């Protein structure tokens, strides 16, 4: 696996001239000083990292009411590619603190100490009250409120709006009514309902891909999106298998949650195999003669179908393998 680091130099906002009120002048100086090491994030005095999140234990919270369209944090970092993020995650160096800023570019801290000062601290929600805005010239990420936020309210973003890499994929625990259940930024942004919800909030590098897909002919677009759907289901299966195994290894096992995930896995495998072409169905023993025989054939050949899904996910679910969603065969 490639371990190329694109840029590990220092980075600052580079403010040479400050204009406006004295308060604005002081704020600019504070931000510039905070970011000049190239890794530390800046957080507004209106927010704080602390425990108490129902989503993830620790989170980012408002210390006072905050209006919409307010910048509440700025994140810098070392710029690396996806292969480096995956390697750092495997070595337990980074823990999901990266922020994607381009097709194959991420802001991150390269050591545990750098990650600690680089981490803004917000969690994911499928009904977020904030969003990420990227400044391509300065290579930084701004956390901006998209709703009015109450005192002590947790501040969240939808990770799939500003990222299209599966280095940030997981079973969602946000509790929102519209929760997607499984978050896969590599595919989420391709769904029309998702695009409608977050219209105008996507960074340029994602919006360009959306526009390019929309400009394809009907048959080309259908073919690409079907291929992406197929890979998305494979990714769901890989995530569910990993989570089931993780929970089975725990000393105190939550048997009900494991059973629920196993049922979810079976349903996803059935959905996945329903789109198998005849030659693939024959290879994995899928019988589409009728619904009863089809479902039974999935149960009997579940291990093989799961292994195929994991292989497909490994080949197509990551950007360092392919920089765009693959075309269907």
How does this model look, in words?
- The protein contains twelve helices and 13 strands.
- With 329 residues, the chain is α+β, with helices and mostly antiparallel strands.
- It folds into two domains: 22-213, SET domain (Beta-clip-like, Beta Complex); 217-316, no CATH class.
- Strands 1-4-10-9 form a four-stranded antiparallel β-sheet.
- The longest helix is centred in the C-terminal third of the chain and has 32 residues, at 218-249.
- The chain is globular and about 70 Å long.
- Residues 1-20 and 322-329 have low confidence and may be disordered.
Give a brief rundown of this model.
By secondary structure, this protein is an alpha+beta fold. The protein has 2 domains: 22-213, SET domain (Beta-clip-like); 217-316, no CATH class. 42% of the residues lie in helices and 16% in strands.
Any chance you could write out the topology, listing elements then pairs?
Elements: H1 22-35, E1 42-43, E2 47-53, E3 57-62, E4 71-75, E5 78-80, H2 82-90, E6 99-102, E7 105-108, H3 112-118, E8 123-124, E9 130-135, E10 140-145, E11 154-157, H4 159-162, E12 170-171, E13 182-183, H5 185-188, H6 192-197, H7 204-214, H8 218-249, H9 255-273, H10 278-283, H11 291-300, H12 302-316
Parallel strand pairs: 8-11
Antiparallel strand pairs: 1-4, 2-3, 3-11, 4-10, 5-7, 6-7, 9-10, 12-13
Helix pairs in contact: 8-9, 8-12, 9-11
């Amino acid at each position: 696996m490639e371990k190329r680091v694109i840029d590990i130099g220092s980075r600052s906002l580079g403010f040479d001239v400050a204009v406006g009120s004295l308060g604005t002048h002081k704020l600019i100086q504070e931000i510039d000083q905070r970011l000049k090491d190239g890794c530390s994030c800046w957080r507004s005095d209106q927010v704080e990292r602390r425990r108490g999140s129902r989503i993830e234990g620790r989170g980012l919270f408002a210390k006072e009411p905050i209006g919409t369209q307010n910048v509440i944090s700025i994140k810098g970092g070392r710029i690396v590619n996806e292969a480096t993020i995956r390697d750092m995650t495997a070595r337990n160096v980074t823990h999901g603190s990266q922020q994607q800023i381009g097709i194959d570019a991420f802001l991150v801290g390269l050591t545990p100490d750098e990650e600690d000062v680089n981490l803004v601290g917000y969690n994911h929600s499928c009904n977020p009250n904030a969003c990420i805005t990227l400044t391509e010239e300065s290579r930084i990420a701004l956390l901006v409120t998209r709703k009015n936020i109450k005192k002590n309210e947790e501040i969240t973003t939808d990770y799939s709006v500003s990222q299209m890499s599966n280095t940030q994929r997981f079973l969602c625990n946000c509790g929102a009514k519209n929760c997607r259940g499984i978050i896969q930024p590599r595919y989420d942004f391709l769904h029309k309902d998702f695009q409608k919800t977050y219209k105008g909030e996507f960074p340029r590098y994602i919006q360009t891909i959306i526009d390019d897909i929309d400009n394809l002919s009907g048959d080309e677009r259908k073919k690409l999106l079907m291929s992406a759907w197929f890979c998305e289901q494979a990714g769901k299966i890989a995530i569910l298998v990993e989570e089931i195994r993780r929970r089975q290894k725990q000393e105190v096992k939550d048997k009900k949650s494991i059973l629920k995930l196993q049922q979810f896995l079976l349903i996803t495998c059935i959905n996945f195999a329903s789109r198998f072409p005849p030659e693939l169905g024959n290879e994995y023993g899928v019988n589409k003669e009728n619904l009863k025989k089809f479902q039974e054939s999935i149960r009997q050949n579940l291990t093989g179908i799961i292994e195929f899904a994991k292989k497909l996910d490994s080949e197509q679910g990551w950007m360092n393998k392919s920089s765009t969603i693959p075309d269907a065969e």
